[in-house]
Design brief:
By secondary structure, the chain is mostly helical. It has 22 helices and no strands.
Amino acid sequence: MCIRDRSLERQDLFSKAIEIYHKAEKIDAVYAELNFRLANCYYHLGNYPKAKEYYIKTRDNDTLRFRPSSAVNQVIKQDYARQPIENFTQFVDLETSIAEASPEGIPGENLFYDHVHLNIPGNYLAASIIFDAILNNGWISKVSTAGMSEGSTCSKTECLKRLGYTKTDECTLLNKIIGVLSKPPFTNQLNHETYLRNLKLGSEKCVKDKNEELMVNTVAAYKEALVLNSHNEGLRLRLASTYRQMGQYERARDQYLKLLKMNPDKPQILHLLAKVYSKLGNPEKAIEYYQEAIKNRPYNPVWYSDRGSVYLKKGDYDKAISDFSQALQIEPNYAVAYNNRGSVYFKRGDYDRAISAFNQALSISSNYAAAYNNRGLAYAKQGDYDRAREDFHKAQRLGHPVDPAFLKNLPSSVAK
């Protein structure tokens, strides 16, 4: 009954839909989807108190409860009221504060990315409320930082400035949220496709807006924030990453070296340094850092594959094969390692084994453009130009650059 009458909502016949949904409610009043549809209908009719009532029921009856229910929140409130622990515990009612800061008392996109994750305004609101509670409780007798008056809460603008939060970070965070929501259990949520489509439109805008000026402004914001907090490792990591994206590998290297000094045993930094030295044309230094990273974390297939790529460029094919094979031993479904191992066989002129490796890569990842291109090169070397041409066209359709003149001059296969 609930699913059948969704068409009424699509026609904006919300009163009629509510009438039918209430009949369904008599059958199953704790069905979360039904609660949500009733909430939506009441919301569209402007009956916000009733909408809020059913949105709360939706949350409380959700099969996958990512948030505490009303009953749990009530227990917390009652327990604190009975046993206040002065000077050690401060009760903060974020649920009520967030509702009060939302239109019609119903939290939504104004403070959340989805039904769980707070966005920047939501996080700032929560942090401000908690900070004020700490301050009012006397746990911090004096708060004074550069550019702020004593005992004041940092404004959202100033807070984002100190965090070095930029348009680039906004886009990065948006893509992470899209990644999370694109996987179960979120894929079964109501309005999932519409909401995800809107997020992807925002992501596409980020791509269009990305230019050198934006990157320069991002670097400037990070550097300004680091002046205020030079020990902020996350911020310095973002600065180094931005330099890498801009192709400024020397500057990226300098930031990674500073991070390594702060965290001498952090293998991720060793790996990033290795990648930068490879870009700088210093394979010996790259291999040195890869070895240190792998020593700290010997079961990471990506790092073996990356080091193998450096050996491949150096022409040290035996070590390259060894690293790609080790990566595949750790992760048998690692398409990149198969493709890279195929490239070694290609360099050695062993085109049959190269094609076999590229086939394995494509069996794992059927849209792997580089593998199609590489297999096409191997077919061409064998004189199988028809298959080569087919693979080059597939690579092109998937976005891999192929020289049109090369394709045009590719002869036809000779019938045997």
